[in-house]
Specification:
It is built from 7 helices and 10 strands. It is of the alpha/beta class. The protein has a single domain, classed as P-loop containing nucleotide triphosphate hydrolases (Rossmann fold). The protein has a 6-stranded mixed beta sheet with strand order 6-7-8-3-9-10, sandwiched between helices. It has a 4-stranded antiparallel beta sheet with strand order 2-1-4-5, with helices on one face. Helix 5 runs parallel beside helix 6. The protein is globular, with a radius of gyration of 17 Å. The two termini are about 20 Å apart. It binds adenosine-5'-triphosphate and magnesium ion. The site of magnesium ion has 3 residues, from helix 1.
Length: about 220
């Protein structure tokens, strides 16, 4: 359902320094697959997820989503495509600090408005035990609650692919378990997950484990 073909990404550092991160990177994700990626800090795991999700244009190579060339779209088309098909979950949550829980979750609909938002919102607030926190700002939430908001935002538009960047990196075992159960039931219901993790207990549930070495993905 997602394919990276010979993707290259080099960042420009200070004084024109080139920082090669992805090089000839290839990856094919099948529908309903749960794939875990690990690798040393700085090897390019977050860069990989951003590239898969249409947020970072590679210099060379293609990202294909069901035969759609993701980076052949305009930035606006890509934002709508992302809202429809991709959910992101981050270690640091990336909630908007001045928006309530309710509006952080609804932010998922901004590029692609949908009907029945209230019903969907109520459903997710209940699923993640956030009914009594809907009007809180992120700063007034526990760490686990913040990630549950992040999960609700990622799932809001019923995406096909979840890209999760160390989603349990900051969590206690109970909230890690909620994240894991959410991701596994997402794949059971037909979704696909690409997750970066250093947590062996999360990796155990993956269908396929990869490591990143010198910008390439290798099966473990
Ligand atoms: N915007 C940027 N400009 C320049 N260099 C960058 C930029 N973003 C990342 N890098 C560099 O690219 C490399 C890969 O970064 P990336 O964040 O993808 O690593 P990572 O594998 O996710 O690391 P970690 O496990 O610590 O999160 C790092 O060496 C980083 O310093
Ligand atoms: Mg990272």
């Amino acid at each position: 359902m997602l394919e990276l073909a010979q993707v290259h990404k080099t960042y420009c550092g200070p004084r024109g320094a080139q920082i090669p991160v992805l090089s000839e990177t290839a990856l094919t994700l099948k529908p309903k697959e749960f794939v875990a990626v690990r690798g040393p800090s700085g090897c390019g795991k977050s860069t990989l997820l951003l590239t898969c999700g249409g947020l970072l244009t590679p210099e060379r190579g293609k990202v294909l989503f069901r035969d759609l060339d993701v980076y052949a779209q305009s930035a606006q088309q890509r934002a709508r495509w992302r809202a429809r098909h991709i959910g992101f979950v981050f270690q640091q949550f990336h909630l908007i600090p001045y928006l309530s829980v309710r509006h952080n979750i609804l932010a998922a609909t901004l590029p692609q408005p949908r009907r029945e938002t209230q019903t969907r919102l109520d459903e997710l607030l209940t699923e993640f035990g956030l009914q009594d926190r809907a009007d809180h700002l992120p700063a007034a939430l526990s760490v686990g609650e913040r990630q549950r908001v992040g999960m609700a935002r990622a799932l809001f538009n019923e995406p096909d692919l979840i890209l999760a960047d160390e989603p349990t990196g900051n969590l206690d075992p109970e909230n890690s378990d909620i994240v894991l159960r959410t991701l596994t039931s997402f794949t059971e219901a037909g979704g696909t997950v690409l997750m970066v993790t250093h947590d062996p207990s999360m990796e155990r549930f993956a269908d396929r484990r990869l490591t990143m070495e010198a910008g390439a993905l290798v099966a473990v």
